[in-house]
Design brief:
The chain is mainly α. It has one domain. Helix 1 packs antiparallel against helix 2 and helix 3 packs antiparallel against helix 4. It starts with 12 loop residues before the first helix and ends with a helix.
């Protein structure tokens, strides 16, 4: 007979929702990376090297966000801090796109996602599920 394992802890709805939004951010970065590669291949980039580095960084960011979304769904406590940091970095990016660059169609979704994820991770259920120690 095998030893009985305890049932996996239930993932709070706020964490599931936050993980979904982080995965959406990751998917958006993957699309950005693909668009950068395609525009480099079929367009006339000012600098091929810069365009490919931009695409690689977007792809790496995408992979990181998708992994963090997966880790949050498995209640890995170490996932919370990097997700919070990414969202805090996203706030001035969204603000700059919206206000300074006059591109609210790009900036407002960035702001909305960042605020939503931060609010969800700040709920008592999410804090308790991802609390360290």
């Amino acid at each position: 007979m095998s030893a009985q394992q305890p049932p996996p802890p239930s993932v709070p709805a706020a964490i599931r929702a936050a993980a979904l939004l982080v995965a959406v951010e990751g998917a958006a970065l993957a699309l950005l990376a693909a668009a950068e590669v395609l525009s480099t291949l079929f367009g006339d980039p000012g600098s091929v090297a810069l365009a490919l580095v931009t695409a690689a960084m977007a792809a790496a960011g995408s992979a990181l966000l998708l992994w963090l979304a997966w880790a949050m769904l498995r209640l890995h406590k170490a996932a919370r801090s990097p997700v919070v940091v990414v969202q805090l970095i996203s706030l001035p990016i969204g603000w700059t796109l919206t206000v300074d660059n006059g591109r609210p169609e790009l900036g407002l979704p960035v702001l909305a996602l960042a605020v939503a994820v931060l609010v969800m991770l700040g709920t008592p259920a999410a804090r308790n599920a991802l609390a360290r120690g």
